[in-house]
């Protein structure tokens, strides 16, 4: 496993991290086995992955609790734990985005309790709330950093304009945005800004939320409650087109004697500004496959070949 430095910190993160929205994330995926979720995290930590991504909203706290159970079996200093706040769940079951400083402080305290930790290494503002100025929300996170409750500040789901405002004082170490072979919109503005401004770009949905796992066919149907129904790549005509591209990528992966998910991960790691990927999943067998991507590389010719497949998507 190769490790990279999270920008503006001395934290070393494994290039292959772990996404845990399906670890106890019952609000996002149905019928999850929590025992499998625990095994998934443990398998990753036992195999060189030290960068874990969770959020308070995953399973409305349950993902953090399960991650916390496993993390305490390992040496704290070796791990880089990232979580996110700003999604306030209300008693009626609805979720409100809240960036108020007092709310963020309380949300972090609750996350620390669930994770059974004194600090988190990276704390992301999960979504902007459109009301609170970034000077206030990021200012609140900067104070939490001074107090030692977080080591670095991240942000997610923002436009370039919002990112610039949030990073006005250079506080942001990491941006988490959607980016994968099938959705390259981050390359237009966000990724170049991160490269120029010393921010680690951490793509979410690195396997296009499962499409680049290679198991989808035109007959695959998501559960009605599955949040991925809202992702355009899974919808209508685009879904069919996507599967054609996936087939071409699979063919190329086979020629290279690798798998499509590994090709998708190493392709992301080859992009300047991407310091780690955080593939998610529900099964521990995924881990041993996905970590192999860190041992791979792509030549300039191979990157060009892939580019030509992708521009025709
Ligand atoms: N900041 C945000 O707003 C935001 C939004 C979304 C996600 N995230 C974070 O990003 C992480 C990654 O995104 P994601 O989990 O949604 O999507 P993803 O990593 O692109 O895809 C996950 C899917 O890929 C499948 N998969 C993983 N490894 C595979 C392999 N080797 N072969 C075949 N299939 C494989 C998993 O299948 P199985 O389920 O069958 O194992 C799962 O369905 C999340 O877990 C979360 O931590 C953040």
From TrEMBL:
Organism domain of life = Bacteria
Boundaries of every NADP-dependent oxidoreductase domain copy: 15-309
Q: Which Gene3D superfamilies does the record cross-reference, listed alphabetically?
A: NADP-dependent oxidoreductase domain (3.20.20.100)
> Which InterPro entries does the entry link to?
AKR, AKR_Detox_Biosynth, NAD(P)_OxRdtase_dom_sf, NADP_OxRdtase_dom
Instruction: Provide the leader sequence positions.
Output: none
The alphabetized UniProt keywords are: Oxidoreductase
Oxidoreductase found in the keyword field:
yes
Which GO CC terms are listed, alphabetically? cytosol
Give any Pfam family that matches. Aldo_ket_red
A GO molecular-function annotation: oxidoreductase activity
Q: What is this protein called?
A: Aldo/keto reductase
Q: Which organism is it from?
A: Ureibacillus yapensis
Lineage per the UniProt record: Bacteria, Bacillati, Bacillota, Bacilli, Bacillales
